[in-house]
Specification:
By secondary structure, this protein is mostly helical. The protein is built from three helices and no strands.
Amino acid sequence: MTTTRLTRSATDSMIGGVCGGLARYFGIDSTIVRLVFVLAVLSGLSPLIYIVLWIIMPKEELAQPTLPVQDPTGEWKYDPYTGQRIR
């Protein structure tokens, strides 16, 4: 079972990632959520809702790539500046 948290999207973001995060949480396209927000603002709803969500929703954490422990290509066996073997 996967748990879905309501977070701001780090990858699907136009302004703050709120619509992208809501779309991922509800499993719909982010364009639909953006259109709903635009229609809500045009109909008289305050854009304050977006700002409040931007403040209270945590930002999505992306996995940081890790550096390999050893060089898989074997390219760096010698120091390019001194020519000495790297241990």
